[in-house]
Design goal:
One of its GO terms (molecular function) is monooxygenase activity. The protein has 13 helices and 18 strands.
């Protein structure tokens, strides 16, 4: 009987845990090492599009996720100054029928907790407080060094799912510099009871929607999470001074309010309801030429960090994870290099395209009033067709690539 592959996943976020669960179900021996001492309630909301939710449904996770998520009924674009709706798209059942799986908004911590619970329940090993500080590859595999431990951990395959500051990425692709967008984002969560119903502006927290407020030089996106108890917001502003690349660094709620002075009543209510706000300098990286060596590969932000303007960071990590598990299924040790090349050949073109599209997304959301905004408003009614390549994608339906 063949000895199962030994895989170490570095990073216990959404991508790393999805990969570990999917790999374990393929008969692969997996251990996840996460540097945090506990899976804490950090971060804010994420949107799970059909391209990820169809994969989570196949993994048997969607029903449990839906219990803590929200299924928005509409997508609404509002004028920045008046708050009136100038474009809207039905979601809910209409979105499901169009793309074949649901669109959900959910707190990032709820997704991470669900994945961890299922993974551990099925016998998976999750090691917390394990900061990876060294990666060394040889012909037979990889040795990892963790802070405070003198004995290295050896594995046949290492998956770097350790985020935008990935130690594993540096071992694969070398050192690179982050690309600063010149913007920062205020992120926060507002209890729904603090928010007024403003039906004349299409803002009714008891009728869940995605509320988008594009405006000249800045924009705000908001949606409910945590079963509708909280409303998540991201407000993006021009900012050359705040350069801390962290989405949990604290900012000042009053600064966020001031940044949108003169905007409409919904934006004022959202920002005015914040007690705590994080401030996040928006960086990405240039697409790398390779993700993998013979025994190491990357996924999620470690492979393709992207700006948030397509809402695809977590979704692409889930796609990566499932495709990687498929490529490593029933693979012997001598077949690992070819399997990792197959994985990369499938995933890298799509994520490169999304990295670049996410950069362009800012131009849509922050167009200046006048011809640029009018051009955007002209194509927004066709938005579902323009996004079909993202949300309609089935990562498991595409060929696994070739070992070139």
């Amino acid at each position: 009987m063949a000895v199962p592959l030994r895989v170490v996943v570095v990073g216990g976020g959404i991508g790393g845990l999805t990969a570990a669960l999917a790999l374990r179900r393929q008969g692969v021996e997996v251990v996840v090492h996460e540097q945090a001492p506990a899976l804490a309630e950090v971060g804010a909301g994420i949107a799970v599009g059909a391209n990820a939710s169809r994969l989570l449904r196949r993994m048997g996770l969607l029903d449990e996720l839906a219990e803590v998520a929200v299924r928005p009924l509409r997508l609404q674009f509002h004028r920045w100054h008046s708050g009136e709706i100038f474009c809207a798209h039905e979601m809910g059942d209409s979105y499901d029928e169009l793309f074949g799986a649901p669109f959900l908004t959910v707190h990032r911590a709820d997704v991470q907790r669900l994945l961890a619970e299922v993974y551990v329940r099925e016998g998976g090993r999750l090691e917390l407080g394990r900061e990876c500080v060294g990666v060394a590859e040889d012909a037979g595999g990889v040795e990892l060094v963790f802070a405070g431990n003198t004995t290295p951990v050896r594995s046949d395959v290492v998956v770097g799912a350790d985020g935008v500051h990935s130690v594993v990425r540096a071992a694969v692709a070398g050192a690179d510099r982050p690309v600063f967008s010149g913007t920062s984002g205020y992120r926060g969560l507002v209890p729904v009871e603090r928010l007024p119903r403003l039906p004349e502006l299409g803002f009714e927290p008891d009728r869940p929607a995605l509320w988008l407020f594009p405006g000249p030089g800045r924009h705000l996106i908001s949606y409910p999470v945590s079963g509708g108890r909280l409303v998540n917001l991201l407000a993006v502003v021009p900012d050359e001074e705040w350069t801390r690349e962290s989405w949990v660094a604290l900012g000042e709620p009053a600064e966020a309010v001031e940044a949108f002075a003169g905007w409409n009543a919904v934006v004022a209510a959202l920002l005015g309801g914040l007690d705590v706000v994080s401030r996040w300098a928006l960086y990405d990286r240039e697409p790398v030429r390779r993700w993998s060596t013979d025994h190491i590969t990357l996924l999620g932000d470690a492979a393709h960090p992207m700006l948030p303007h397509q809402g695809q960071g977590a979704n692409q990590a889930v796609e990566d994870a499932v495709v990687l598990a498929d490529c490593l299924a029933d693979v012997g040790r001598d077949e690992v290099p070819a399997a990792l090349r197959r994985y990369e050949s499938v995933r890298r073109p799509r994520t490169r395209q999304l990295q670049l599209a996410s950069r362009r997304g800012r131009e849509c959301f922050q167009a200046l009033d006048g011809p640029a905004a009018e051009e955007r408003d002209g194509w927004l009614p066709q938005l579902p067709d323009r996004l079909a390549w993202i949300h309609g994608h089935d990562a498991q339906a595409e060929p696994r690539g070739h070992a070139g």
